[in-house]
From TrEMBL:
Domain HTH merR-type: 1-68
PROSITE patterns with a match to the protein in the record: HTH_MERR_2 (PS50937)
Name listed for the protein in its UniProt record: MerR family transcriptional regulator
Highest taxon, organism lineage: Bacteria
Keywords in alphabetical order: DNA-binding, Transcription, Transcription regulation
Molecular function terms from GO: DNA binding; DNA-binding transcription factor activity
Gene3D superfamilies: 1.10.1660.10
Alphabetical list of PANTHER family matching this protein: HEAVY METAL-DEPENDENT TRANSCRIPTIONAL REGULATOR HI_0293-RELATED (PTHR30204:SF94), REDOX-CYCLING DRUG-SENSING TRANSCRIPTIONAL ACTIVATOR SOXR (PTHR30204)
Length: 116
């Protein structure tokens, strides 16, 4: 399929696909006339990329998930490198929750001081 069809099927833009390609995440073939041609497997890759981006992952964190899919796995999260990224992301989320909880406590204290 050509880039426009992949973009439509994946619910994204051709610009985003070119961006993913520039970062080595999407791998089109080139036709004789230079057009980008994508296999159906690239649709799964693009869905994985978009899902991970929506969950707050950055492109470098997404690489192991894409590699896992390209290795023939049914899911991008079953490989050891992907699991390591998931663990690191979970630790980041836990840290953020702890910081927000501490801030919430500080705000509650400040509000209590203001009440008569």
């Amino acid at each position: 399929m050509l880039i426009g069809e992949l973009a439509e099927r994946a619910g994204t833009s051709t610009r985003a696909l070119r961006y993913y390609e520039a970062h080595g995440l999407v791998q089109p073939r080139r036709s004789a006339n230079g057009y980008r041609v994508y296999d159906d497997a690239e649709l799964r890759v693009v869905h994985e990329i978009r899902a991970r981006l929506a969950a707050g992952f950055v492109l470098d964190d997404i690489r192991p998930f894409v590699a896992c899919l390209r290795a023939g796995n049914a899911s991008g999260e079953v490989c050891p490198d992907s699991v390591a990224v998931l663990r690191r992301k979970l630790a980041q989320v836990d840290d953020c929750i702890d910081r927000l909880s501490a801030l919430r406590g500080q705000l509650e204290v400040q509000l209590r001081r203001q009440q008569p």
